Amino acid sequence: MDSEQDFNLRLLATDGAARAGEIATARGVIRTPAFMPVGTQASVKGVHLSAVRAAGADIVLANTYHLMLRPGAERIAKLGGLHAFMNWRHPIITDSGGFQVMSLSQLRKLDENGVTFRSHIDGAMVALTPERAIEVQNLLGSDIVMQLDECLKLPAPAAEIERAMRLSLRWAARAKRAFEGAAPGRALFGIVQGGDDAALRTASARALVDIGFPGYAIGGLAVGEPQAVMLKMVEEVAPMLPADRPRYLMGVGTPEDLIEAVARGIDMFDCVMPTRNGRHGLAFTRYGAINLRNARHSEDSRPLDEEGPCQATRSTSRAYLHHLIRANEMLGPMLLSEINLAYYLDLIAGMRAAVTAGRFADFRAATREAWDKGDISRNG
Questions:
Q1: Of 12, 62, 242, 322, whose CB neighbour count within 10 A is largest?
Q2: What is the Cα–Cα distance from 138 to 272, expressed in whole angstroms?
Q3: Cβ of 302: how many Cβ atoms within 10 Å?
Q4: Facing residues of 248 across strands?
Q5: Is 168 exposed, middle or buried (0-12, 13-18, 19+ CB in 10 A)?
Q6: Is 270 a catalytic residue?
Q7: What does the pLDDT look like over 199-256, one tens digit per residue?
Q8: Residues linked to residue 128 through DSSP beta bridges, in sequence order
Q9: Among residues 143, 196, 270, 346, which one is catalytic?
Q10: 15 is catalytic
């Protein structure tokens, strides 16, 4: 049975290039636009998965590279697969490990066949090929599987960008062959590469569409280039991808990145920013980012936002959050991570509703106006 028949995107509304829809999977519907909290090692750092779900997440992301090293994909398979292992019964997407090709460049050797890593845990040599990446993700049992690709940090020489893009295309074809016969309701996404070169991005997108995937990702962005360059690449690529397939912008980004990318036709996002910033004392709110380390919060009894999307936003005082962060109490990063995820998921839900109502431009303008007004001016 062809798994693509049981994995599909149903577009419910469009407003300009912005889209709202539903992706059907074997483990439930993913509402789009979708923000996918990052659970790299089968854990969204500092936030219980029940809170992730309550905040509005339909899907979470886990990482192939990290889980194949520890605790091991075969072990997770023996324990019933990743969904049972982490007690998340909803859709899961797994990154292929391609980002680690870039981030661990000092610990790896890359050739046509794949990548050989020196494990950052114990120094053991580990091989990751397009086929092994699929095998690991099949053992994990993720609902959306990513091809192995080569991601370059930008800026990079044009010749290197083209070499990595062509290699990623050859790996995409190998990944598709390796994924044949997958269980119904699961899907493999191809990844558009090409750095900051519009012509290479166009060539990559066309070739991937020719190979044929149930979903397409735009990778290799938010890796050092200005936001304007990232958005220009999205503008070039998104219209070239099939309208009836999900479009996923990998590793992005700030709240502004999300709203601007949705305006350009993107359906899916993942980013560590909500939890990573939360661990460092930064909260995202309707009125922009608030640094709870600042002394001005030390005697402020107000909540972050009395109309915020989660209880901690509405009921926990800034003074208490400031104290927790300054005292290095683990509850501080936990609360701020939950607050930030709730904000991101509420923002994405607001975009879904706005597209459905044909009011995305108004929503975008009002959201940006509140960010520009800021938290300090709002409260004197």
A1: 62
A2: 24
A3: 11
A4: 217, 268
A5: buried
A6: yes
A7: 999 999 999 999 999 999 999 999 989 999 999 999 999 999 999 999 999 999 999 9
A8: 115
A9: 270
A10: no
